[in-house]
Design goal:
Blueprint: H1 3-21, H2 27-43, H3 48-63
């Protein structure tokens, strides 16, 4: 697992933990907000086609029940 992936996973778990502890936040809604914010951020530097292709690949992996493969420089 690449260092960037590990760091991102840790940040997400920490943020979700804080959302769980907050009485004014719903964890599922917060997770969805994180996903939307990340896609928006990603779309600032990538073409719409590139973002859609990457999301489509992840959707296919989920449908197949497989794990995504994290690579460097792709």
């Amino acid at each position: 697992m690449a260092g960037e992936h590990q760091f991102a996973s840790e940040i997400i778990e920490r943020a979700l933990g804080e959302a769980r502890e907050s009485t004014s936040m719903d964890e599922e809604v917060f997770a969805r907000a994180l996903m939307y914010a990340l896609v928006q951020h990603y779309a600032k530097t990538r073409s719409p086609e590139d973002v859609i292709s990457e999301l489509d690949q992840r959707i296919r992996e989920i449908e197949d029940g497989g794990e995504s493969v994290i690579t460097r420089g792709c």
